[in-house]
Design brief:
By secondary structure, the protein is of the alpha+beta class. The chain contains 23 helices and 27 strands. It is elongated and about 200 Å long.
Length: 778
């Protein structure tokens, strides 16, 4: 019994072991199946397509991810519900259902593209019979999201259309280009030419030209058309050259450009530059003719580039600059050229040549259109120098030798003054009549004798108009007709006449008429009532005038030469001591030298002021008429006087309005006028005083006022301050302002410009001097 139980137990044990083995194998297979299912599910999850099953009854089983992509909420059970939820049109759903029904019968696959309006996506649907174990009639559909592909396809299509349109336009542009264009393949053979190329090589068609290999230029070797294309390919950049070609039987110069392409091909074009070459040749000829013409000019001309180097000059410039052609051909810099001219004595003498040179260097950036100045050289030559700043930063310099003109003008002015002075100081009544009977010249005695107005005589009346007025002064009015006959016979008959006229006041005048070489007639009247007395008086007066003129001339000459010459020597030697030419000076000695220099400057200024006064009195003061920036002139004057004011613990303030603007006048004289006002204000304001300069303008004039808070000027002396050498008695200043030169000079300079000077002073409150200067030339 026990043995049987053992056998049965062993048998069950074997059966259990066998079942365990079978179960393990089945578990292993199940595990593999699950892994495969999971792998397949993972692949399905990562796949770009999503499945949906439609059974024979039309029921839908869609992948949840597909529903998410379609933006459908819930679980649609049919295609119609799916379409409604996804926004697929009803017609598209019906077409899909119809195709599915046909596919169930035929068992064939089909594809369809639909658009889900809800999500805005486009899907490609592939439908096929579902594999087993699906029931019969079940269809498997795969939905692929192709929205990005469709968008990219649309973008590519649009670009393709644009490219085709651009290519058509470019082709049309190339074909319509007025100059030859071509395309060479990698073998450098012509592959495309335009109509201009065909016309240039006298071909029938583009195909004919390409077939014949007709080239635009006939050069060989390095000058051939293919050689240029090869050079462009080798260099990897466009290759340009100028070569001649025969176009339409005419030799023309072409600018040929070959452009390498990334494909190994070469494109090219040619531009006719014959007109440019002709213009360049004509320009070169014109420039040469202008150079030849400039060499024949009497004025010297030179031009400097933006680097301030000489770029052009003519032969007269070389002569006036005193330089050799080799020196000028080296294109010296502007400063170096001035230094070379100075070595040759062709620049004005100046104590501070570097500063003088810097002022001329500033011409390059000057705002004036023209800068003019006169150079008086050491040998007496007088040159007119004109500088013209150029837009490119350069400078044009013109030098004109006016030595003879100045001498002739001076002689002419002297003769005119002598003639006017002579006429007015003669004891005869002088009148000159032109050949047409008009009064041409007369002296003051003529005006006084006949009691006529100068303003009316300046209209040059005819003798017929003068006769009725003269008749009123004569004892016998009929004698006036003798004067008319006298003028007529002298101008027309060229005869001398003489006689006497009796005036109504008892005076008797001897007259005579003399024909002049220019066709005019000189008529003189002499009062012979008391000829001896009158002749003696006139002789004494003439001698006194001559003596006064001689004294004045000697005074001016002595002031100019006798005072300036030693003053220049003193200043020069003092400057040498100051600069250490005699060795290092002690501080005390340096102070003495500085005092000498200050005194030299002061004395030089005094001499200039005295000379200016004598010149203005004699009518010899010349006013140069140029554009003057009054605002800048006032600022510079204030800046120059700041040190002098600071030495007396004074302050100078300026208030210059934007309306100040420009005037036409002599910048040097106007600056001196303002300097005189500022010096006077500094001298009389006292320590710690305050000086103010105001400037503004209107359409007609510029007004400049200088005010100080000094002691003022007594009322009784205010009318005298503009007289020469007048000074305020209670002024403590020992400067040149105390000599009373500043205000007289200021008034003369301003009045020479057509302006006026006014003074407003209150004792104890200060003084204000105002200048009014017209804007236009007077």
């Amino acid at each position: 019994m026990d043995g049987l139980l053992l056998i049965i137990a062993a048998l069950w044990m074997g059966i259990a072991a066998a079942l365990l083995v079978v179960a393990g194998r089945r578990m292993d297979r199940a595990r593999k199946t699950i892994d495969a299912a999971r792998s397949l599910a993972g692949m399905m999850g990562a796949a770009p397509v999503r499945p949906a099953m439609i059974d024979a009854d039309g029921k839908l089983d869609a992948d949840p991810e597909l529903l998410r992509q379609l933006a459908v909420s819930g679980r649609p059970s049919t295609l119609a519900e799916l379409g409604a939820g996804a926004g697929i049109s009803r017609d598209t759903v019906k077409a899909l259902e119809s195709r599915i029904a046909e596919a169930r019968l035929s068992g064939e696959r089909f594809s369809l593209q639909v658009e889900a309006e809800q999500s805005g996506k486009i899907f490609d649907i592939s439908v096929m019979p579902a594999p087993r174990p699906a029931a019969d009639g079940t269809m498997l559909s795969w939905w692929a999201d192709t929205s990005q592909q469709e968008e990219e396809r649309g973008r590519l299509g649009k670009r393709l259309d644009q490219t085709e349109s651009a290519l058509d336009s470019l082709t049309q542009l190339i074909e319509s280009a007025p100059f030859p264009m071509w395309y060479r393949g990698p073998d450098l053979a012509l592959g495309l030419v335009n109509a201009a190329f065909v016309a240039a090589v006298e071909g029938d068609t583009a195909a004919d030209v390409i077939a014949r290999g007709a080239e635009l230029i006939d050069g060989t070797g390095d000058e051939s058309a293919r050689a240029g294309a090869m050079t462009a390919l080798e260099n990897g950049k466009p290759y340009s050259r100028t070569q001649p070609a025969t176009i339409g039987g005419e030799r023309r110069m072409l600018r040929i450009v070959d452009v390498p392409l990334a494909t190994g091909a070469v494109a090219g074009f040619a531009i006719d530059v014959q007109d440019i070459e002709d213009a360049r040749y004509e320009l070169a000829q014109y420039i040469q003719s202008q150079r030849d013409l400039s060499d024949r000019m009497t004025a010297g001309a030179a031009q400097f580039d933006s680097d301030k180097r000489l770029s052009f000059y003519n032969q007269p410039f070389a002569v006036m600059a005193g330089l050799d052609v080799e020196e000028l051909d080296a294109k010296p810099e502007f400063d170096r050229l001035l230094e070379q001219m100075r070595d040759k004595g062709r620049t004005p003498e100046t104590r501070d040549f570097p500063a003088w040179k810097a002022e001329r260097r500033a011409w390059f950036t000057a705002t004036d259109e023209l800068i003019e100045e006169d150079w008086i050289l050491a040998n007496g030559d007088h040159q007119r120098v004109v500088g013209q700043p150029l837009p490119d930063g350069g400078l044009r310099l013109i030098i004109e030798d006016r030595t003879e003109q100045v001498r002739l003008a001076s002689a002419r002015d002297t003769l005119l003054r002598v003639r006017a002075a002579t006429f007015d100081n003669l004891f005869e009544v002088i009148s000159v009549f032109a050949s047409d009977g008009r009064l041409y010249l007369w002296n003051k005695l003529f005006t006084d004798l006949w009691e006529l107005e100068d303003s009316w005589l300046s209209e040059h009346p005819r003798i017929d108009e003068l006769v009725p007025l003269m008749a009123k002064k004569l004892k016998d009015p009929e004698d006036a007709t003798r004067i008319r006959e006298l003028v007529s016979s002298t101008t027309s008959g060229r005869k001398e006449n003489a006689g006497r006229l009796q005036f109504a006041d008892g005076r008797s005048f001897a007259y005579s008429s003399v024909p002049l070489p220019d066709g005019n007639a000189l008529v003189t009247l002499v009062d012979v009532t008391d000829s001896t007395r009158i002749q003696a008086a006139l002789r004494e007066r003439a001698e006194a005038l001559e003596e006064a003129d001689r004294v004045k001339t000697d005074f001016v000459a002595n002031m100019s030469y006798e005072l300036r010459t030693p003053l220049t020597s003193i200043g020069g030697f003092a400057e040498m001591l100051q600069q250490g030419y005699a060795g290092t000076l002690e501080d005390k000695a340096k102070g003495y030298v500085d005092a000498i220099m200050e005194s030299v400057e002061r004395l030089s200024r005094l001499i200039d002021n005295v000379l200016d006064l004598t010149r203005t009195e004699g009518g010899e003061l010349k006013i140069d008429r140029k554009r003057v920036d009054m605002a800048g002139l006032c600022r510079n004057a204030v800046a120059a006087m700041t040190v002098d004011a600071a030495a007396k613990d004074q302050s100078i303030e300026e208030e210059i309005a934007d309306s100040t603007g420009d005037v036409t006048g002599d910048a040097k004289r106007l600056r001196e006028a303002i300097d005189h006002l500022l010096r006077n204000a500094i001298a009389y304001a006292g320590p710690g005083g305050r000086i103010e300069l105001y400037a503004h303008g209107d359409e007609d004039a510029v007004t400049v006022s200088v005010a100080d808070d000094g002691p003022g000027i007594p009322v009784e002396e205010q009318e005298e301050v503009f007289n020469r050498f007048h000074k305020v008695h209670d002024a403590a200043s020992r400067s040149e302002t105390a000599l009373g030169l500043g205000l007289p000079l200021t008034r003369q300079f301003v009045e020479a410009h057509g302006g006026n000077v006014s003074l407003d002073s209150t004792p104890g409150r200060g003084t204000t001097v105002t200048l009014r200067i017209p804007r236009g030339a007077q």
